[in-house]
Specification:
14 strands; three-stranded antiparallel sheet; D-Maltodextrin-Binding Protein, domain 2; alpha/beta; globular
Length: 431
């Protein structure tokens, strides 16, 4: 018997988290395993919706068929409820045997002894790109195994550019070239109804700042989890868009607020936008055009360096009483071709070729486009994803808040930087 528990807080606005029990499969879920050949029960948890749950259940069914001595109990919740539950379990040293991990939380759990080091386990990592695999490491310990990957891209609306008679940025373009492109589009679209802009203020996204730092040959964070950049570097990045900002050539902050939860690019009022490559499907759906194209990010001083960011990872609680079976399940979920077929790109592009090759991809589809893009930029992926510091979520949110204030003209770049570093000193524990 496999017990699936789902957080159902949406049933009523005032309801607490409700666990829905669904029996499926065969066996006895009350057996506890000793990991030495007897019956073993594993607990597995993830965040996501019903569609993801169905894919996990189908995949775990296959694992149980191949491992009849193992019973898997699963649970899933929405993002916020998921991390509330994991924090509670971590305090009681009762984390699941296998659970989805996000890069933003890896240091918080890994550096405090909550996660098992999987580097000496039975998990086959031969099919992983080193730059991706190392994103799950802290001080040489492998605390997470990536299930899938994405990387940053510049999206542009081919229909708008055709209408304006403007060419997209050329191969190998720089940040300065991108600024010139954005200014040209904004000038050409100034008399259109609605007015068309080249882009929004890309400096307002913290991950783009981290990407830019890597292109300068800098790692954003130290090995011991501190900030490795200074006020001058953040100021330089924010000032990349200063001319566009001062000439009102960026998509207006006021209009951005009006459009929420959509944005200028998705309503065809901005011709380009930077984001993660797995946003392509949403952009096509929201904009109503399939002529959404992708380019690598602008090149920096050291060339077009990018990084693979794991869409998510799988980790194992250090408290697991069945580490061998937990590792076997992780190995199955990240390497088995049939699991790759089941999930497709729903969690991002599968991390290993065996799973990518098993996907059922139609020519010209969104999945095919994203796969082709990642193949094209692979030579430029030279760095692992930056391992976020503890408190990353709060400093990222503060960066976004200050970017909105900058967009409204309420603060200057210097005030932005001063306020952010004051906040980060407390959030990250800088001295």
């Amino acid at each position: 018997m496999r017990i699936t528990r789902k957080a159902a807080g949406a049933v009523a606005a005032t309801a607490a988290i409700t666990l829905v029990l669904t029996a499926c499969g065969g066996g006895d879920s009350t057996d506890s395993g000793d990991g030495e050949g007897g019956d073993v029960t594993l607990t597995v948890a993830w965040w996501g919706n019903d569609d993801r749950a169905a894919k996990y259940e189908e995949s775990i069914d296959l694992f149980e068929e191949a491992n009849p001595n193992v019973t898997v109990q699963t649970q899933f919740q929405a993002w916020d409820d998921y991390w509330t539950a994991r924090n509670t379990e971590a305090a009681g040293q009762s984390l699941p045997d296998v659970f989805q991990m996000d890069l933003s939380y890896l240091r918080q759990y890994g550096s405090t002894g909550q996660l098992a080091d999987l580097s000496g386990s039975s998990i086959d990592t031969a099919g992983f790109e080193e730059a991706l695999l190392s994103s799950g490491q802290i001080d040489g310990a492998q605390y997470g195994i990536p299930t899938s990957q994405n990387t940053l891209a510049l999206f542009y609306n081919g229909d708008l550019l055709d209408e304006l008679g403007i060419e997209p940025p050329a191969e190998g373009y720089t940040w300065e070239d991108y600024n010139a492109f954005a200014a040209e589009v904004s000038a050409a679209g100034a008399d259109m109804d609605p007015q068309i802009y080249g882009t929004g203020d890309y400096t307002g996204t913290f991950w783009f700042f981290l990407q830019w730092l890597i292109q300068q040959g800098e790692q954003p964070f130290t090995d011991d989890g501190q900030l490795a950049f200074d006020e001058a570097q953040m100021t330089e990045f924010l000032n990349l868009a200063s001319d566009l900002r001062e000439s009102d050539a960026l998509f207006p902050a006021e209009r951005t607020t009006q459009l929420l939860p959509l944005g200028g690019f998705t309503v065809n009022e901005a011709a380009s936008e930077m984001s993660w490559d797995n946003f392509l499907a949403g952009y096509i759906s929201d904009s109503g055009t399939e002529n959404i194209q992708m380019l690598p990010m602008p090149s920096g001083d050291n060339g077009p360096q990018q990084f693979w960011k794991p869409s998510m990872l799988l980790s194992s609680g250090a408290n697991s009483e069945n580490p061998e079976e937990a590792a076997a399940l992780i190995d199955f979920l990240v390497n088995d071709p049939e699991v790759g077929r089941i999930f497709g790109t729903s969690k991002g592009v599968p991390a290993v070729a065996a799973q990518r090759d098993a996907m059922e991809v139609e020519e010209g589809s969104v999945d095919a486009t994203v796969l082709a893009y990642e193949e094209a930029v692979a030579p430029d992926v030279t760095e692992p994803a930056p391992l976020p510091v503890e408190g990353f979520g709060s400093i990222e949110a503060e960066y976004k808040r200050l970017a909105e204030e900058l967009g409204y003209g309420n603060i200057t770049v210097d005030e932005f930087v001063e306020q952010w570093f004051l906040f980060a000193a407390d959030a990250v524990g800088q001295s």
